[in-house]
Amino acid sequence: MNLKASYKYVMYDNKMALLIYSLIIVLLTVLLFAASVSWSNENSTTRISGMEVASIIFIFVAGLTSFKDNFHMLMQNSISRKGIFTATMLGFITSSGVLSTVSIVVILITKLMAMMQKNIISGSFFETVYPAHINGMNNVLILLESFLLYFVMMLAVVGIGYLIGVIFYRLNKAGKVALAVGIPVFFSVILPVVDVLIFDGRITVGLVRFMDIIFGISAQNPYVAIVSLLVVFLISGLLSWITMRKASVKA
Amino acid sequence: MSSIEVKNLSKSYGSTQALNQVSVNFEKDKIYGLLGRNGAGKTTLLNIITNRLFADSGEVLLDGKPIMENDCVLSNIYMMSEKCLFPEKMRVKDVFKWTSQFYPSFNMDYALSLSSKFELDLKKKRDSLSTGYGSIIKLVTAMSVNVPYVFFDEPVLGLDANYRDLFYRLLIEKYSERPFTAVVSTHLIDEVSPVIEHVVMIDKGHIIKDEPIESILSQGYTITGPANAVDLYVADKDVMSYDMLGGLKTAYVSGKVPSELPDNLEVTKMDLQKMFIKMTNDKEVSK
C-alpha cells in the first residue's frame, strides 16, 4: 500500500488550510485582547472564551469537503479504497492534533492576557463545562485534559463531517437534495414541532439528559466525554468505510 | 506470460446490461485498440479493470492475482480516463509532482519534454485548461508513469490533428524504446489503426472480436475500379459498403483476397473502420 504518499497527499490538501486558519485564530485572539484593553474601564469586565468552537466548525467543514477530491486524485493514482480510507483517517488524527494544539495555544494566550489585564476573564470550554472537576487541579493537568478532550471532540466532529461527505457523494441528485434539505428541516422544524405538539417537550429533555450523560457533565467527569467522543469517531469511521468501500468513481 | 486476464465480467446499470460475460486478455508489451460504438461498454470495462468500478460478477487478474482493491497489483496499472480526476485547482507541475510520489518510476524529465512538445503551460491550473489541454495533461502524465499497463480512454478527445498525430508518434516511439501494454479506447478507428497490433471490439456489452489487426484485415479486401466493372465483380460477393469518387467505385468486400482479378480492378487491404461499421451494424455478427 502506498500509504506514505497517500498520507502526504491528504495532508498537503489540509496543510495550507490549517496554517491559514491557525494564523487567523491566533491573530483574532490577540486583536480581541487589544480591543478589550483599549475599550475597557475599571467598571467593566471582558470575557474571552469559547474560541475552541471555531476550530470545531473548521474541522467539521474540512471533514465534510475532503472526500470527493481526495478520492478522485487517489483513485487516479491507483490507490485502493482501503488505502484512501486509512490515509484519510491518519490525516484526520494529525489535523485534530494540530487544531487541539492551536486551541491550547489560544487558551494560553487568553490566560496571559487575563494575567496582564485584571478586567479580562479567560475561560475555556473545558473549564466552563467541568468547573468542579478542575477545582484545585494543577494547571498543566488542566491543559493536558483539555487537549485530550478537544482532540477527541475534533476527531468525532471530523468523522461525522466525513461520513456526511461520503454519503453525499454516493447519493444520486434527488438523494443529495433530500439530504441537504432534510437534515436541517428535520432538526430545526420537524423535531421541535413534534416534540412540542406530541411529546410535550420530552424529546428535548431526553436529549439534554443524554448529552449530560455522554459528556459526563453532572458527574463532572471529562473522561466519560472522552470515551463517548472516541466511540462517536469510531462509529462514524466504520459507517464511512461501509459507505465508501463500494464507491465508484462517478463519471 | 504476464497479462491482465478479464474473466466473465458482467455489469449492469439498472435495466441496462453494460457488460455481459466479457472475457479478454491483455498481454504484456502489446498495443491494443479497444473499439466500440457509443455505449458499447468500453469505459465500463476499463473502469472495472482499473478498480474504479465494481463488477456484478466476474474477476480481473494480473499475473494470476486479483486486481480489485489490491494496492500492490494496482501499482502496475495506470488509466488515463475521459473524466479528469486531478483536483481542479492543482497546477500542471503539481500534477506531475504528485504522480511521481505515487509512481516512483514516473519520468519527470520526459513529462517536461512532452509538455514542451505539446506547449502545455506548467503553471496553469487544471480548471483553466481548455478541453484539448485537459486531454494533454492526462496524456503527458499517462505517457510518463512507466508502468507495465497503461489504459487510454479516448486519449485524443479535443485534440487538433497536429497534436493527435504527435500523440500517435510519441506512443510508437515510447513503445519502441521501452515496450509496455497500451490499451487505447477510441472512436477514431482510422487514426489509431496504424498504431495498434491487436483489436478488441466490443458491442452491446459483448466482445465481438479479439484478434491481431492483420488477421482482421485479412478477412476482407477493397476493390476499386470503374463502377460497372466493380458492380459486375462483386455481384456474387458479400459487400460491406461502397464509396464513389467521380467514375471510380470502391467496394469493401468480406472474404479472402482473390488470386485473379479483371485487369481494370485494383485490390487493396481492408479498411478497419469499414470492417468495424459492418460488424457493429450486423446484429447476426454481434451476437
Q: TL;DR of this structure?
A:
The complex is a heterodimer of chains A (about 250) and B (about 290). Chain A is mainly alpha-helical and about 250 residues long.
Which helices and strands, and how do they pair?
The complex is a heterodimer of chains A (251) and B (287).
Chain A (H helix, E strand, L loop, with lengths): L2 H37 L6 E4 L2 H14 L1 H10 L4 H36 L3 E4 L1 H5 L1 H4 L4 H32 L2 H25 L4 H14 L6 H23 L7
Parallel strand pairs in A: 1-2
Helix pairs in contact in A: 1-4, 2-4, 2-7, 4-7, 7-10
Chain B lengths: L2 E11 L2 E12 L3 E6 L5 H8 L7 E6 L2 E2 L4 H4 L2 E4 L11 H11 L5 H10 L13 H14 L4 E5 L7 H17 L3 E6 L2 H4 L5 E6 L2 E7 H5 L2 E7 H8 L4 E7 L2 E7 L11 E4 L2 H10 L1 H4 L1
Parallel strand pairs in B: 3-8, 3-9, 6-7, 7-8
Antiparallel strand pairs in B: 1-2, 1-4, 4-5, 9-10, 11-13, 11-14, 12-13
Helix pairs in contact in B: 4-5
Please give a structural write-up.
The complex is a heterodimer of chains A (251) and B (287). With 251 residues, chain A is mainly alpha-helical. Chain A has one domain. Chain A has ten helices and two strands, in the order αβαααβαααααα. The longest helix of chain A is centred in the first third of the chain and has 37 residues. Chain A is globular, with a radius of gyration of 21 Å. The mean pLDDT of chain A is 90. By secondary structure, chain B is an alpha/beta fold. Helices cover 33% and strands 31% of the residues of chain B. Chain B is built from eleven helices and 14 strands. In chain B, the strands form three sheets. Chain B has a six-stranded mixed sheet with strand order 6-7-8-3-9-10, with helices on both faces. In chain B, helix 4 packs antiparallel against helix 5. Chain B starts with a strand and ends with a helix. The interface between A and B is medium-sized, with 24 and 27 residues.
